[in-house]
Amino acid sequence: MSNDTDLQERVTPGTLAERAKLFRGLADPSRLAILEALRLGPLSVGQIVAATGLSQPNASNHLRCLSECGLVAGEARGRFVDYRLADLRIDELLALATELLDGPARGVDACKSYRASP
Amino acid sequence: MSNDTDLQERVTPGTLAERAKLFRGLADPSRLAILEALRLGPLSVGQIVAATGLSQPNASNHLRCLSECGLVAGEARGRFVDYRLADLRIDELLALATELLDGPARGVDACKSYRASP
DNA sequence: GCGAAGTATCACTGGCGGCTGATATGTCAA
DNA sequence: TTGACATATCAGCCGCCAGTGATACTTCGC
Predict the structure, then answer these.
(1) Residue B76 burial class via C-beta count within 10 angstroms: exposed 0-12, middle 13-18, buried 19 and up
(2) Strand D closer than 7 A to residue A47 Cβ
């Protein structure tokens, strides 16, 4: 059993679970909607709520998560908080995903193993 | 209510749920372990099982899913099936994720909103 | 100070997805 | 043909995360 774990670790030393967790951060339509909205520029929570249609507590929760994960960064301005993408490579990652969806990964939406919005 | 949906759609026309689903395909440690193993070259199911420590039915299930999604491609060779990454950009995507984890997204593993392996 | 607006936090729940164990299908060797 | 091997499929259970609703906290206008 410890052997199996070792084998798993040997594939990519250490960061396998972390990478899965990173992708999981991007795997939720709500979080993705927030990130997409922020690609155009910084937004306050209220603006994000308006842009995505999420409820305010829900958006706040996801923003907390995204912030802790280092995907977005929030800057308090009075009673408002402006959020922005934490890194340019996040934009690249999203763009690359779009490319794949137009290409080989076109069959994703047909996959029955899991849903888009859980 | 239909207004909120419209707003959501306006962020990225059409492909928001699909992109979430693509990331969800990468968000599982088992699937990610398979993809990582395949980055080094094509492998049969048995070799994947040995490399990842997954059970055979479990690996087969994930391979089916990954194949339907267009992330891997399988080629039957006798009673063996060799799987490989379906596109080079999948490798790029994984590399970009690693970069982010070494950089701004370092706090991902500390995020308590969700786990690495569900 | 007081009320209001913006944001964050909390407990709760329902639905979904990943793992397992058994079984089916298909293919090679003898 | 028969047995063994490689892979695929199936049903069921369990743990979990996303959403909701209520509420607390902070900051601004008056």
Answers:
(1) exposed
(2) no
Q: What is the pLDDT of residues A71-111, one digit of tens each?
A: 999 999 999 999 999 999 999 999 999 999 988 888 888 88
Q: Which residues of A touch B26 (CB under 8 A)?
A: 20, 23, 27
Q: Is the dihedral of CA B63, B66, B68, B73 positive or negative?
A: negative
Nearest to B16 among A27, A36, A64 (CB): A36
CATH number at residue A38: 1.10.10.10
Number of folded domains that form chain B: 1
B109 domain-assigned: no
pTM of the model: 0.85
Task: Report the nucleotide nearest the CA of residue A47, measured to C1'.
Answer: C6
pLDDT per residue as tens digits for the range A43-52: 999 999 999 9
